[in-house]
Amino acid sequence: MSGKNLKYRQNMGRGRCSTSRVQSLQEHQHRRRRGKGKNRCRPTHWREHIKVRRSARIFHRLKRRNTSQSDSSSSSSSSSDDEAPERTPKQRQRVELEVLSIEFLRIENGRAHHTDEYEGPDGVVRRGQPFDLRLLLNRPFEKANDSLSIQLTVGETPQMNKGTEIHLHLSPTLPSGKWGACVKAMNDRHLTLSISSPPDCVIGRYELDCPKHCLTGEDGPVAKTHFYILFNPWCIDDTVYMECEKEKKEYILNETAQVYVGSASNISSRSWNFGQFEEGVLPICFELLDNSQMALTGRGNPITLCRVVSAMINSQDDDGLLEGNWSGDYSGGTPPMEWLGSVKILKEYHEKKKPVCYGQCWVFSAVMTTVMRSLGIPCRSVTNFDSAHDSDNSITIDEILDEYGNDVEDMTSDSVWNFHVWNDCWMKRPDLPDGYGGWQAIDATPQETSAGIYRCGPASLKAIKNGMVYLAYDTPFVFAEVNSDRIYWNQNKRGRLTPIWKVQNAVGHFISTQAVGGKERADVTDLYKFAEGSPEERIAVDTACKHGTRAKELGLQYVKDVTVVVQTDKDVFRGSKVPVLIILNNTAAEARQVAMVVRVLAIYYTGVKKGLCKEETFDVTLKPYSEHKTRLWLESSEYMELLQEHCALQCYVTGRVMETREPIISQHIFHLKEFSLLMSMKGAAKLKKESKVKVTFKNPLDKALKDVTLKTEGVGLKSDQVINVGTIAPGQEIQHEVVVVPKRAGPRTLLAILSCKEIVQVRGEVDIEVATG
User: Fold this and answer.
1) Residue 361 a catalytic site member
2) Spatial distance between the Cα atoms of 719 and 342, rounded to a whole number of angstroms
3) Among the options 201, 361, 379, 545, which is catalytic?
């Protein structure tokens, strides 16, 4: 006998692998499952067991139906209004629980999540904070015996391992910082549930559903609802958490604010309707993310999301929202200065499925503010006056002059904009060293590429202030915008460049945003840079320029005996005669002979020269320690044809001190005062009732205004109108009544703009307090 057969016989003798032993064990387990009653049927196969159970269920259902029919026939003599006798708990338990409908408690959730202003069919909540649902069931819910299965999905192809498909079961309490569900209240067939979400979950439009048959989960109709989950500045564990309640109200909930434009010497503002709660805006914001092909898994990270949105707001390389245009020719689109708010831009993009024409920096920034606030990220528009554009990563602004002091335009690629508008967004920065969270600079205007795409930021303001340009993202570019030195170079006849002048306080002035809780201007320059000329500011510049290409030029020292200052009057209206004052100051103990050229140019707000208005040459002899003033007058006929849009006037002084060959260079940019519309409310405004606003304007020019149009717009108000005014004669006053119908209560603002070729940027606004009664 072989060894294998011998071992098998030994095992059989010990009971191992015995066929009879296995069969007896199976019968024993089957008896335990079926119970020990002697009179009960004990099928020997599990399929027969299931058939018996199903037959029993069908038998009992038919028996109950026949019983109820016989009971109703026997009680025909009694009143038809008599109620059927209440079933026992055992009978109720036999009725399978079904979810008939799900109600998203929009009012309650909206108040708790600060989302009650959102218009549209879907509810809106914020992540990291519980929200409530009310389920209608086919019978009362029994905590001890019933259970519910809940599924949440986001995106077209949800997956559990990517956090876009979530399955929940009821628990006694909600877990902290995780997905969860628990019973909040029970009232007959209504069951109120609380759902919790993690503070870092994906934002988006979620679908929540419950199987109709809660216990069996059989295929068939399901009860479902849709809602949005957004970032949550009120949740301390969210990366966009903001502590100050007033700041959250300003940077998340405020729908209208001032955007600052003009020049450092004449700052002006224009109101903008962000409209982040208007119907259709939130879905379009997510449409932008979808069009960018941003992965769903990245939509819980505000750093990544802001970077994607800054690219999608412009259309430079991805067919994004808005096409930039600085040419002055806006045929085929809307001139940038005629937009009053973001809502029309977003809706036109959604309807036409292509970039909207046209935008410039304040439009890009304002729409960025709308998208960020709509998604739940604190955001504000910020204006930097005398804003540098460093095109070659030198972290300096270089200007090339010929031997006569004229710009060599084909050699000069850097520029200084009169103003530039970008955004600050509030978030933690776990990707940076500790302490670099808070406000982050983000720029949607397509200026330079970042990793091959036209976008900028987020760059930590603390990193910018300290010159730490090696920290992500795009910190060198933003640092140069606010704190770079301006270096003038002389190009000789052979083309050799020699640095001749350095100006330290050349860029980054009066960095402005709207103050919290009001319409005043708040200066936030100290968040971006130390005091100009202070040791800390110079250390920051030196630190930054070590990573640039002009480090050695920053240490050059220049003799400066003669200084020049240009002054203009801030209260001169467009169309008036403009006085320009040039003040020369000799700080030397000897007399100085100065030869200088004064040019007044019209320039676009980007610093690009549009045309020469006036040029004069002066030869001046300065006594030791003396001051000399020269006044130049600019007639309206010399500049009116050149001043369009946000064009400014630039007084550019160049010259030389004959004794020392010291160059004289000075630039002064100024704006003339704009005209405005007078607007007033007629009576009190009430919710969903017609109200009227009177708009008044008087032509200040000595020529007629032709093809005049008047546009109005207001968030929370049915007020969008375009009125063809026609021609306004010189000195003529016009009045128009605009009808508004408030859609939402509370403080609202109606904006208006009057447009024609002869005069630009005639704007006005009126605040409206909408009562509910």
Assistant:
1) yes
2) 15
3) 361
Residues 6+ apart with CB under 8 A from 744: 117, 119, 277, 687, 716, 770
Candidates 344, 209, 218; CA nearest to 275 is 344
Q: Is 31 helix (H, G, I), strand (E, B) or coil?
A: helix
Q: How many CB atoms lie within 10 A of CB 351?
A: 11
Radius of gyration (C-alpha) of the chain in whole angstroms: 37
User: What is the Cα–Cα distance from 116 to 397, expressed in whole angstroms?
Assistant: 48
Instruction: Tell me the one-letter amino acid at 371.
Output: V
Please name which of 364, 362, 394, 353 lies closest in space to residue 455, comparing C-alpha atoms. 364
Distance of CA 732 to the CA centre of its chain: 42
Cα 396 to Cα 356: distance, rounded to the nearest angstrom: 34
Residues in Cβ contact with 760 at an 8 Å cutoff, skipping those fewer than 6 apart: 337, 644, 645
pLDDT confidence tier of residue 643, bands split at 50, 70 and 90: confident
- Cα dihedral 324, 325, 330, 334 sign: positive
Give the tokens for residue 687: 């919710």
Mark out the alpha helices in 529-687 (DSSP H runs): 535-545, 636-639
What was the pLDDT predicted at 4? 45
> Which 3 state secondary structure label does DSSP give 38?
coil
The torsion of the CA quartet 573, 574, 575, 576, rounded to 10 degrees, works out to 40
Could you tell me how many residues make up the chain? 773
Provide the 10 A C-beta neighbour count for residue 257. 21
C-alpha to C-alpha distance for 417 and 603, rounded to whole angstroms: 10
Spatial distance between the Cα atoms of 263 and 383, rounded to a whole number of angstroms: 10
**Residue 494 pLDDT grade (very low, low, confident, very high; cuts 50, 70, 90):** confident
Contact 679, 752 (CB under 8 A): yes
Q: Alpha helices of 127-272 — where are they, by DSSP H? A: 245-248
- Residue 281 DSSP label: H
Report d(CA 597, CA 615) in Å as an integer. 7
Which of 443, 474, 485, 561 is flagged as catalytic? 443
Is residue 599 within 8 A of residue 639, CB to CB? The reply is no
- Residue 17 pLDDT class (50, 70, 90 cuts): very low
- Distance CA(753)–CA(532), nearest Å, equals 38
Task: State the Cα–Cα distance between residues 386 and 363, nearest whole angstrom.
Answer: 18
Other C-beta atoms lying within 10 Å of the C-beta of residue 671: 25
Of 768, 738, 741, 605, nearest to 677 by C-alpha is 738
85 pLDDT higher than 60: no
CA 354 to chain CA centroid, nearest Å:
20
Which is the catalytic residue, given 420, 509, 646, 668? 420
- The predicted structure's pLDDT at residue 8: 42
Across the range 632-642, mean pLDDT stands at: 92
Residue 318: active-site member: no
C-alpha–C-alpha distance, residues 280 and 289, integer Å: 15
